[in-house]
Q: What sequence folds into this?
């Protein structure tokens, strides 16, 4: 009797675990469908967006738009980046039509445009002279263009820059020029590295958007790239090995102690707390380091992203507004998209919320506004400079078959980038050799590249 | 009471029982039916759907390329080389965490089994880690314990002039195990404490009178008594920890031999966006878990049973 009971217990336990795992694997993304009743005067626009500060500001200001356009209600659905990507991809790919406006990254725009999932905005925007489509920063416009059609308009954009604690570097007698090389930066980092303060903080957290955002730009300026012009993977090349070994050596010599835990937020904290002297990362970080509550406000210096063989090596990212072709309210959606990315909107944010909160990196004219110039004096000029000089069509030494800098705009890249990031993280933590990591990464990348040949 | 009388009574009861049983059984079945139906709808249908998905070629990013593909998802899941390291990671993490939390749980249970002032407060405090959400617990550990700059463990190391440890980078598996042990020790402690409090104090006194020391009383009387409770703790703990996700996602991102099956599944489904392949991994995982749960744990407990007599 006891035996049977025990067997039953085991059976029940086994079943429970089996079911739990099964439920885990079949986790469908379910989303409540918003009411998109657009009959006649009353229009409800459903907008999916990411939970960044600038987007939340837009939500605060939406009433201005609703007041100016009676009958229109804009319904915001704010999500984490990962959730947004999953929810919006599922909705747009299946043509469900739940969202009238979606927020997508520069990585998605050309792919989705090519799939026919997005409305081509070019004719409408060019026809409207007050919108001034030519004012959009050219590289940002390029990454959102596929086949000469603009499929999304930038809400804000960013590049990457080198940020350093001037006080610390001055004390050590180290100077950094406007356009440093990686070798200079590594040497400087080594010089200021102490037990209490890391010389440099760089992302090491595995993930295509974490470690591989800065690392891809390092690889590209060392002369390597993910693919050659015919979609042959080129990860097992000497340039890659050189770049990855350089990155690891720099981290070992003078980087933060626990690189696998560090990404944007961790490095930001380390810099603010005086635990790191330098940091090469997203330009948007500068506005946080210069915020009123930052202990290092006014002590920072900024330079272009370090280079080796290229002229520039800053990345290019933008969050954009796009209209899925499945929407039933294209005209109303377009009107809102235009408003949210217009010059007037930028003025509105400046006056209502504050000039340092203005969405940067989308329009050239933003950088001519006197109030913004004053509020962002420390970093606005260099951001504009870097953003207008990077070349998303060919960021590396050799030509590439896609437009984009710190990513490859193919659907498989998230997966490939992620797995490669784990392999490289294993190398950074001394668990594998660089050849082994890059060899495995090469075959992953090749498998993905094969799907795009021909 | 004579023997014959007793026999008649027994015979009558038996027939009554049979009659009542059939009737009662029908009612009982009728009453349970909705619950069973609900259970099947909630658990078995999704599983069947998962099996269905696993036979389909379906990547969310290629919406037009979708169709039946037979067993090729299974072939790629089994041949990719991701499965075996993931199984090893899951087994190691589960085993270490369960064993350590039983050991610590036992220690705290024995301590809490004594009478002292503020016992209720101490017990509540001891339980707290189990009540913290897994994701929150991982974040707390990431920043306030493991961090190289502001973490308490490294503050301690620095104060004692020991080298600073980069937990997630250098010891990823241990990092995950530590967090899980911290979380599940209270769980084990509660179960074992219940066992200890259900122990007959008379036997302990008798042992004392017979001259058994504390250690001998514990190993020869308390431990055999607790065996059943340990078994339940290990079983429940394993079933919960085998699905561990949060500490892996937050602390190590699956590097350094911490990519558990649950995390692998998540990666395939939400980063690879490959529904078919993720479903195939899910089914393989279920089969493996079934085998582990029935065979491995059973053998484990047989060893246990041979060790002490009940």
A:
């Amino acid at each position: 009797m006891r035996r049977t009971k025990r067997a039953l217990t085991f059976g029940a336990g086994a079943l429970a675990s089996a079911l739990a795992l099964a439920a885990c694997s079949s986790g469908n993304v379910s989303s409540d469908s918003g009411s998109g009743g657009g009959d006649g005067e009353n229009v409800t626009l459903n907008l999916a967006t990411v939970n960044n500060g600038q987007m939340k500001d837009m939500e605060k200001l939406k009433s201005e738009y609703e007041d100016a356009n009676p009958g229109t209600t804009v319904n915001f659905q704010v999500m984490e980046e990962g959730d947004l990507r999953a929810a919006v991809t599922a909705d747009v790919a299946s043509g469900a039509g739940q969202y009238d406006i979606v927020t997508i990254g520069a990585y998605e725009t050309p792919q989705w445009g090519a799939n026919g999932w997005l409305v081509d905005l070019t004719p409408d925007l060019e026809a409207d002279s007050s919108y001034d489509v030519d004012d959009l920063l050219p590289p940002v416009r390029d990454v959102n263009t596929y086949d000469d059609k603009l499929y999304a308009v930038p809400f804000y954009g960013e590049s990457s820059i080198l940020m350093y604690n001037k006080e610390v570097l001055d004390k050590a007698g180290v100077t950094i020029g406007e356009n440093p090389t990686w070798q200079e930066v590594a040497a400087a980092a080594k010089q200021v590295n102490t037990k209490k303060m890391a010389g440099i903080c760089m992302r090491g957290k595995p993930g295509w958007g974490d470690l591989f955002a800065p690392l891809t730009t390092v690889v590209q300026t060392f002369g390597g790239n993910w693919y050659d012009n015919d979609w042959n993977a080129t990860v097992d090349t000497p340039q890659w090995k050189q770049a990855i070994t350089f990155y690891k050596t720099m981290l070992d010599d003078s980087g933060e102690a626990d690189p696998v835990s560090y990404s944007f937020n961790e490095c930001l904290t380390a810099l603010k707390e005086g635990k790191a002297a330098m940091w090469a990362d997203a330009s948007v970080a500068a506005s946080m380091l210069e915020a009123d509550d930052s202990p290092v406000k006014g002590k920072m210096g900024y330079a272009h992203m370090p280079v080796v063989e290229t002229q520039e090596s800053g990345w290019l990212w933008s969050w954009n507004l796009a209209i899925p072709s499945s929407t039933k309210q294209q005209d109303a959606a377009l009107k809102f998209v235009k408003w949210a990315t217009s010059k007037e909107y930028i003025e509105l944010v400046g006056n209502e919320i504050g000039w340092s909160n203005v969405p940067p990196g989308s329009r050239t004219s933003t950088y001519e506004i006197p109030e913004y110039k004053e509020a962002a004096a420390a970093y606005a000029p260099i951001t504009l400079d870097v953003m207008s000089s990077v070349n998303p069509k060919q960021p590396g030494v050799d030509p590439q078959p896609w437009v984009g800098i710190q990513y490859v705009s193919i659907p498989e890249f998230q997966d490939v980038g992620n797995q490669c990031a784990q392999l490289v993280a294993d190398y950074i933590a001394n668990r594998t050799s660089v050849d082994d990591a890059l060899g495995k990464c090469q075959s992953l990348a090749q498998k993905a590249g094969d799907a795009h040949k021909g | 009471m004579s023997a014959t009388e007793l026999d008649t009574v027994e015979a009558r009861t038996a027939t009554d029982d049979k009659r009542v049983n059939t009737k009662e059984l029908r009612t009982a079945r009728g009453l349970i039916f909705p619950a069973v139906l609900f259970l099947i709808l909630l658990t078995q249908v999704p599983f069947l759907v998962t099996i269905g998905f696993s036979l389909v070629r379906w990547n969310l990013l290629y919406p037009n390329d979708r169709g039946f593909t037979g067993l090729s998802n299974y072939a790629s899941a089994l041949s990719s080389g991701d499965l075996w390291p993931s199984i090893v990671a899951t087994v190691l993490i589960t085993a270490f965490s369960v064993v350590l939390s039983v050991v610590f749980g036992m220690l705290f249970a024995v301590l809490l089994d004594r009478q002292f002032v503020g016992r209720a407060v101490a017990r509540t405090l001891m339980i707290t880690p189990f009540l913290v959400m897994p994701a929150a617990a991982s974040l707390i550990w990431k920043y306030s314990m493991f961090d190289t700059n502001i973490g308490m463990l490294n503050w301690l190391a620095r104060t004692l002039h020991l080298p600073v440890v980069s937990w997630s980078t250098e010891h990823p598996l241990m990092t995950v195990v530590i967090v899980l042990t911290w979380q599940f020790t209270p769980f084990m402690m509660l179960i074992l404490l219940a066992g200890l409090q259900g122990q007959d104090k008379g036997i302990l006194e008798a042992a004392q009178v017979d001259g058994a020391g504390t250690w001998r009383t514990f190993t020869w009387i308390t431990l055999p008594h607790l065996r059943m409770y340990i078994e339940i703790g290990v079983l429940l703990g394993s079933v919960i920890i085998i699905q561990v996700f949060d500490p892996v996602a937050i602390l190590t991102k699956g590097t350094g031999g911490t990519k558990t099956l649950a995390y692998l599944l998540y990666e395939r489904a939400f980063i690879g966006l490959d529904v078919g392949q993720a479903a195939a991994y899910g089914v393989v995982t279920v089969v493996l878990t079934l085998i582990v749960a029935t065979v491995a744990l059973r053998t484990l407990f047989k060893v246990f049973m041979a060790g002490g007599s009940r």
Observations:
- Chain B has a mean pLDDT of 84.
- The CA atoms of residues 218 and 224 of chain B lie 9 Å apart.
- The first helix of chain B runs from residue 3 to 54.
